Fold this sequence. Notes:
The chain is an all-beta fold. The protein is built from no helices and 11 strands. Strands 2, 4, 5, 6, 9, 10 and 11 form a 7-stranded mixed beta sheet that branches. A 4-stranded antiparallel beta sheet has the order 1-3-8-7, with no helix packed on it.
Amino acid sequence: QVQLVESGGGLVQPGGSLRLSCAASGFWFDNYYMTWVRQAPGKGPEWVSTINTSGGVTRYADSVKGRFTISRDNAKNMVYLQMNSLNSEDTAVYFCKARRSVYDYWGQGTQVTVSS
């Protein structure tokens, strides 16, 4: 049974940091690209970042470049999103996603709220 479980969300003040985690199980994690996607209230999904299978290649949306860092630990079947210098526009539900060929798995999401 495929599972992606996000954690680490919460309420943070502007300028603060959070580290999101995504625990994967039920599939061959090493073979999947991992992506973080977010959805702000009243808006559509927004791609945030992707990491390749080895972790050696990463991509970021312009809106988070220089502030967010994606990483993965294949030994633990985990993917992370370190988020720094958060602002109100980062408020959203953050989802992790696993993709390989036609296979596409999503987690349930974790809420991140940036507010003073």
